[in-house]
Amino acid sequence: MTVRRAIPVLAATVLLLAGCAGQSPPPHDRPAGPQLPPAGAQLDYQLGGAYDPPSGVDIVVRDRTAASVDDLYSVCYVNGFQTQPGELDAWPDELLLRDDEGEPVIDPDWPDEVILDTRKADEIAEIVGPWIRDCASDGFDAVEFDNLDTYTRTDGALRRDDALGLATMLVDTAHDVGLAAGQKNAAEDASLLHLRAGFDFAVVEECAAYEECSAYTEVYGDHVLAIEYTDNLPRPWDEVCADPETPASVVLRDRDLVTPDDPGYVFETCG
């Protein structure tokens, strides 16, 4: 966590006056403090590549390496608990979780992602923290942290408390720079992540397919951003939309999240 020290009143006054005289307004005129996603607004999920959002979209989620979208609520994707594909070299060897033979532990569902050793939360936060601050300076309104539930795929090497400790540090960093913090998936830990780590909203995949949407809405209310995929849709899309359990902000996308110029592109909302 960041420890804030009180500045003496006189010194603070001098600094404030100096800042007013010499500093330009903050980028994008960002309001003070985190702002939640607009409740029930239409969502687009663009992790496979950035493109102009379709008409009617008010919330867009993009990778941290992409640009935010002016005049839309923009969420910055950060993989805080595993290495991103192609970015393994960016991580010191000692922060990678290793098995008994000293080999990096690879996520069984994502063979190009290595699991980070969340027992070393301070060191991981030193790397992820600048990414979060870049999201803020790039004009994003919020950040979502993926793979919070990585600990469940390590055969007991990592624990929930390890993930919770790192998550709390990352959420604090987001809040310090005015970003709302989104919990990504991890339905079974939603209440704990909200109450103890301080998450503000949720970004969830396939909650309709796995019948767990209420696990998120009972914690975050209308501030749940849901993505369903065409290859695992549990029933026709209009029935998913009509289901009262389905979050109001929901989008149907193709599994690879391709851009509109790709023949596999799918984008549907309930609006």
Percent helix: 25-40%
- Our estimate of the beta-strand percent is 15-25%
Q: Which stretches of 5+ consecutive residues score pLDDT under 50?
A: 1-28
Secondary-structure class:
alpha/beta
Question: How far from one another are the termini?
Answer: 40 Å
Q: Assign an overall shape.
A: globular
Instruction: Determine the number of helices (DSSP H or I, runs of at least 4 residues).
Output: 6
Strand order of the largest sheet: 1-2-3-4-5-6-7-8-9
- Supply Rg: 19 Å
> What is the strand tally?
9
Largest sheet entry:
9 strands, mixed
String of helices and strands: HEEEHEHEHEHEHEE
The residue-averaged pLDDT reads 90
Task: Describe the overall structure.
This protein has 271 residues and is of the alpha/beta class. It has helices at residues 9-22, 121-137, 160-176, 190-197, 213-220, 237-242, and strands at 43-45, 59-63, 73-79, 142-146, 180-184, 201-205, 224-229, 249-253, 267-269. The protein has a nine-stranded mixed β-sheet with strand order 1-2-3-4-5-6-7-8-9. Helix 2 (121-137) runs parallel beside helix 3. The chain is globular. 37% of the residues are buried. The model is unreliable at 1-28 (pLDDT under 50).
Secondary structure blueprint with pairings:
Elements: H1 9-22, E1 43-45, E2 59-63, E3 73-79, H2 121-137, E4 142-146, H3 160-176, E5 180-184, H4 190-197, E6 201-205, H5 213-220, E7 224-229, H6 237-242, E8 249-253, E9 267-269
Parallel strand pairs: 1-2, 2-3, 3-4, 4-5, 5-6, 6-7, 7-8
Antiparallel strand pairs: 8-9
Helix pairs in contact: 2-3
